[in-house]
Write a structure and sequence with these properties.
The protein is mostly helical. It contains five helices and five strands; from the N terminus they run βααααββαββ. The structure holds zinc ion (ZN). Zinc ion binds next to loops.
Length: 243
């Protein structure tokens, strides 16, 4: 499969070959650019850690509030107990029925006090444990935030570097494309679009540089003669480097 190129003298495919090199580098730079990790996974980790830390702090506040509440209840119970004791032993109450009911009250208050004291001891432990959990959750959050910040700084730098590289290559591409005969350029672009960005391949050691199949005898000479020769297998344009 071949045809005459006409127009450009000497090595008409040289410009197209050079364009392919730029296109390949441009595609690689774009692939690296889109493969950059923008920190989404790390950010999700930070958000989860922040939620866990907020939950741990809320749990601590809840335990502290419960402790304060029980301490208050204990103080009230002790005050009542003291008052009833005064009533019982102060001699102001002499009615046996009233005395017996006071004794029952005192016994009930003593049970409540014992129960509250037990709860308060348990709540002390709970508050201490919640404090530790909250501190550890805050530390995890802070450490993840630091990692995210460091990652984002690296990401931004890499992105800026690649954007500059892509911009430079795109400008070079535009300039090089102008040197290629328009009809040949369109043909190359059509093939490249369908063949993974590669529209022109070198014949090396008798093999197609695209599909690695053996190239028919005589194709190299025809390419050297300035003809456009297409690989019969992968349909790419053949190029032969200068001898
Ligand atoms: Zn091929």
């Amino acid at each position: 499969m071949s045809e005459e190129t006409g127009g450009d003298s000497g090595r008409p495919l040289e410009h197209l070959w050079n364009l392919q090199q730029v296109d390949t580098r441009l595609a690689a730079a774009r692939a690296r650019r889109s493969a950059l990790d923008d920190g989404s996974a790390l950010r999700a980790g930070v958000e989860a850690a922040a939620r866990a830390a907020a939950q741990a702090v809320a749990q601590l506040h809840e335990s502290q509030a419960a402790l304060r509440d029980h301490e208050l209840q204990l103080a009230t119970t002790e005050a009542k107990h003291k008052k009833f004791e005064g009533d019982l032993y102060g001699g102001r109450v002499s009615n046996p029925k009233e005395l017996s009911s006071l004794q029952e009250e005192l016994a009930a208050l003593a049970r409540t006090r014992d129960h509250l004291e037990d709860r308060i001891l348990a709540l002390f432990d709970q508050v201490e444990a919640a404090k530790e959990a909250a501190q550890s959750a805050e530390a995890s959050k802070a450490s993840l935030e630091q990692r995210l910040a460091a990652h984002l700084a690296e990401y931004e730098a890499a992105r800026a570097r690649l954007d500059a590289e892509i911009e430079g290559l795109a400008a070079e591409r535009t300039a090089r494309a102008l040197l290629v005969e328009p009809r040949l350029l369109r043909r190359y672009e059509g093939i490249a679009a369908q063949e993974g960005g590669v529209g022109i391949v070198a014949i090396q050691n008798g093999l197609c540089g695209g599909c690695h199949n053996a190239v028919a005898l005589g194709f190299v000479d025809r390419v050297r003669d300035g003809q456009i020769v297409i690989c019969e297998r992968c349909r790419r344009i053949f190029y032969v480097s200068a001898p």
